[in-house]
Amino acid sequence: MNQTDKWATAALRIHSTVLSAQKITEALKTEPTSIRVKGELLSPRNPRSAVCEAHLWVLESGLDARSSIENHITQLVQFIEQKLPILEALMKDCNIDLFCGYSSGSSQGGIMLEANLMKRLAIIPIDLMIDIYASEPRRRKKAG
Q1: What is the sign, positive or negative, of the torsion defined by CA atoms of 23, 24, 27, 33?
Q2: What pTM value is reported for the model?
Q3: pLDDT category, 5, cuts 50, 70, 90?
Q4: In this structure, are residues 143 and 111 in contact, taking their beta carbons and an 8 Å threshold?
Q5: What is the residue-averaged pLDDT of the chain?
Q6: How far apart are CA 87 and CA 12, in angstroms?
Q7: H-only helix segments in the chain
Q8: How far apart are CA 138 and CA 126, in angstroms?
Q9: Residue 48: pLDDT above 50?
């Protein structure tokens, strides 16, 4: 496996058909990494693109893609724990999740979350979603 092909990412996502990204920013007193506005095209350069059905507020972990998925999750859990009362109040008008992506850089791989992190996640009423991206193993050249 080529270590440079291995990557992980994570983001806290807040979707709402009621609250704008600006209102979510004001509530959390935190600037998002990115936003989407309800009613705008998903792909502004394509006039036939689908339209955003909800406002979206996204805060990425801010870590390098080479950091472990556990580190990405831990970074966001720290933020969530600090803002938990506000996030719980937002839940009446928002759907909130912790979205992660992971690739081992090969066709086989896995992740491990330590028990302490799982305990912290278990008391947070936010869904955890992990997308796994598999890569085909590189074929070796046959000798001579």
Answers
A1: negative
A2: 0.86
A3: confident
A4: no
A5: 90
A6: 11
A7: 21-28, 69-90, 115-122
A8: 37
A9: yes
Structure tokens at 16: 């709402």
Nearest-Å Rg of the Cα atoms of the chain is 18
The more confident residue out of 89 and 138 is 89
100 token code pair: 């992660």
What's the per-residue H, E or C state across the chain?
CCHHHCEEEEEEEEEECCCCHHHHHHHHCCCCCEEECCCCECCCCCCCCCECCCEEEEEECCCCCCCCHHHHHHHHHHHHHHHHHHHHHHCCCCEEEEEEEEECCCCCCCCCCCHHHHHHHHCCCCEEEEEECCCCCCCCCCCC
pLDDT for residue 105 = 85
